[in-house]
Amino acid sequence: ALPISQVLIFVYALVIFIFLFLVETTKVSANPCKSVEDCPEVREHIAKCIDGVCDYWPDPDF
């Protein structure tokens, strides 16, 4: 039998791995686009359509 500390470490690592996977898949599918005009405007950010997904960069003018 495994000590409880090893089980807790395994569960902790598993939760972190699943969380990272969910965050990445949510980000990728958030705003599909064909051009920059398809991307919603976000205050103080510049939108770019990269590989069919809206990507946002901080605007240096703000």
Walk me through what this model shows.
It comes from Pisum sativum (Garden pea). This is Nodule-specific cysteine-rich peptide G29. Keywords: Membrane, Transmembrane, Transmembrane helix. Residues 6-54 form the Late nodulin domain. One of its GO terms (molecular function) is metal ion binding. By secondary structure, this protein is of the alpha+beta class. The protein has two domains: 1-30; 31-62, no CATH class. 40% of the residues lie in helices and 19% in strands. Strands 1-2 form a two-stranded antiparallel ribbon. A hairpin with a 2-residue loop joins strand 1 (45-50) and strand 2 (53-58). The longest helix is centred in the N-terminal third of the chain and has 25 residues, at 4-28. The chain is elongated.
Briefly summarize what is shown:
This is Nodule-specific cysteine-rich peptide G29. 40% of the residues lie in helices and 19% in strands.
Number of strands: 2
The biggest sheet, with number of strands, parallel, antiparallel or mixed sense and barrel status, is:
2 strands, antiparallel
- The shape is elongated
The tally of domains stands at 2
- Low-pLDDT parts are none
Name a few traits of the molecule.
about 60 residues, alpha+beta, about 40% helix, elongated, transmembrane, Nodule-specific cysteine-rich peptide G29
Topology readout:
Blueprint: H1 4-28, E1 45-50, E2 53-58
Antiparallel strand pairs: 1-2
